[in-house]
Amino acid sequence: MAEEVLSQNEIDALLSALSSGEMDANELKKEESEKKVRVYDFKRALRFSKDQIRGLSRIHENFARLLTTYLSARLRTFSSVSVASVDQIPYEEFIRSIPKRTILNVFSVPPLEGRILMEINPNIAYAMLDRVLGGRGQSFNKVDSLTEIETRIMSQIFEKMIEGLQEAWSSLVEIDPMLEDFEVNPQFLQMVSPNETVVVISLNTAIGESSGMINICIPHIVLEPIISKLSVHYWMQNQSSKAKPEDYNRLSNHLKSAKVDMKAILGESTITIEEFLHLGVEDVIQLKQNINDPLSVLVHNDLKFYAQAGKSRNKMAIQILNTVQRGESE
User: Fold this and answer.
1) Does residue 25 lie in a domain region?
2) Position 15 in a domain
3) Is the pTM of this model over 0.70?
4) Quick one: the chain helix, strand, coil %, rounded to 5?
5) Best exposed site among 94, 117, 157, 256 by fewest CB in 10 Å?
6) What are the residues whose beta carbons fall under 8 Å from the beta carbon of 167, sequence distance 6 or more?
7) CA-CA distance, 35 to 57, in Å (whole number)?
8) May I ask which residue range the UniProt record assigns to the signal sequence (predicted)?
9) How many structural domains is the chain composed of?
């Protein structure tokens, strides 16, 4: 049986119980000597490993940062979003855990099958609405009496919020989230069967002086095609992978066909405005450069080569003599 790793909070609680006498060390040793049996509830099938749950947590930590940036800019007030927990539970248990009246948004995420649910606590949703309408961001509860205008404004905010999920998931799959349904009663939503395993990402959210939770419910059917990409092995493999030879050749071919601005400088001279205004036919301008000195060849105004002037097939041409070394032009 695999050993269970305790979190730091669990370790602190255990040490505190031992020091206060609530728990006896001898009893712990006795329990260890006895055969341990782990209770498994088949109604709560664990379909995601701890490694995959950590992968989802990393993805949505990035989403939380993107959401914080968007809300701060959109609402012009203090906004903070952070991941509170990532759990896998039956869909029925998730529906029972949220308020009877709340803000629910159902999104499709093509090309993935199924739909995801974003539940936003009314305190947060109304604080957003109040800020957009010019208020101070105070929360009020009127879920049962939302007007069409208020519903439309909220939907637009939530559609922009979910765009951050598209960017956060881009390392796994390119999705195109679309809002399909806006509801306030969770009993009217039956996305999957009650016993279907879903991953619930809970986000601590603060808008001004209001705070609440945003819960993202992702059914197993949505994550099934990309579940193998959630492991640490996949992430490390991607980070350590090197460019393939065919990628290098393709990039080289693109660079070879790129056009650049190239010019040869025959020389420079300085004259006054009066001399310039009186220039006429057959006048000679003396250059500062000696006739035996090499010409400077510029590529996009950067000195790259030295050359000499000449002719090729009765056309003016230059012959490259040498390449300018780094720092030589300075």
Assistant:
1) no
2) no
3) no
4) 40, 25, 35
5) 256
6) 62, 63, 66
7) 34
8) none
9) 2
